[in-house]
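[[Per-residue structure]]
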Amino acid sequence: MDAVNNRLVIRLAPGDNIVVARCDIPAGTEIPQEGIVALQDIPLGHKVAAVPITKGTPILKYNTVIGYASRDVSAGAHMHNDNIAADSTKAMGSYQFCQDYHPLEPVPPDRQRMFQGYLREDGQAGTRNCILILTCSNCAATVARKIADHFSEEVLAAYPHVDAVVPLITASGCGIEKSGTPLEYLQRLIAGHIQNPNVAGALVCSLGCETNNIDALLDGAGLTPSPMLGRLVIQEEGGSRKAVERGIELVDRMLPLADACRRQPLPVRYLKVALECGGSDGLSGISANPALGRAMDLLAAQGGTAVLTELTELIGMEGALARRARTPEIAQQLIDKMQWWLDYCAGRDAQINGKVTPGNNAGGITNVLEKALGSAQKSGSTGLNGVFDYAQRIDQSGFVMMDSPSYDPVAGAAMFAGGCNLCAFTTGRGSCYGSRHMPTLKIASNTPLYLRQEDDMDINAGAVVDGEKTLEQMGEEIFEALIALASGQPSKSEAFGMGSDEFVVWWRGVTA
């Protein structure tokens, strides 16, 4: 990429017929780099026709088709909703499985990086040392929050090695099918949170009569109440007030045991990074996402794990991802899950059928094909080693994928349940997502956003757009920042206290 400080646009590939504005460009501005004049105001991150384009011509970005010209346009025209038509996203045909897969050459032992983490008895490693307060249903929500509220910063000051006591409340858990996917996903999500290595202890709260029965939940996951896994049933305790008192007592007993845990040097291969993007813009796929991909290549070489999800934002890129698959079976799993989404969303006003969110669109992303082109870049370039169901335990290293809707708290909760102990989150419009139990590195795609929401953003990938850093340099900066985050340095969202409400279950078939 050739963004230089005195250039107004970014050309992503020599054969592209559009370029991208790296700042707001007023109408009438000369763009010497391309030998054109802006015919309309071109906002930051939006596309400009680099040459005259006739109706029906493919629109090329990164030398990839993101749509077709819906009418003739002149060089310098703003290329967006009124002159780009997306082709059908149903073109699921034959694929070249595994054609781009190459075994990863691991970093030699003497060059392996370390971080300061918590080694757990099951062989996993945590980046945080938290106690979670979870609920089987919304009926226990107030009790769980009151228990967690008791453990203020002043109380926890006596336990300096405990990072947080975090309440995670589900909105449902009763009034649903007594069997089937929604209940299965809820139970898988709760059990996965209990078993995540960032969790030293957990208290599960229940009313006592809900569909999501507490004992069935624990038994189904092979979990047994213990000093670090509490079972609290409001009806058995004699009501809400007594349940709060009992819950505080149970957590009080956990705190000294959790505080006895200590960080120790551990190889970076223990890190499992959840890859997220939210509030993307036209620069996300140029700066933040590919830079994060560079960082994930570095992590994979160290034996770590990068988890890409939100399949509805990857339509059109499934073929490229399938070519990176280690085996035909892995590639087919991806195609099957993508086909499920296409079948389910057929005829619905869902993103996978073309339209992106209003914020994405205002930021310069015209359709889901363009969005997918940028979203996939978070994964880097290494082989695809596994495809996992929603909130399923991740047991492969390197680059893997997980099925989930494209809604940040749903996808984030699923990846934490799968074993992720960090999150890297890119944004161009300004998402506020974060978590105390899954520390989240927020990466801005452009400098104006970073300066506007500096209290939320940890990294400014806008330096790539500004010509100050290469993608490789920014990838190295992100990689180093993730190691520091894993070792205990708080992210900005973590320091603010984000994470108690960013816990949302996928009621399959509702969220797309």
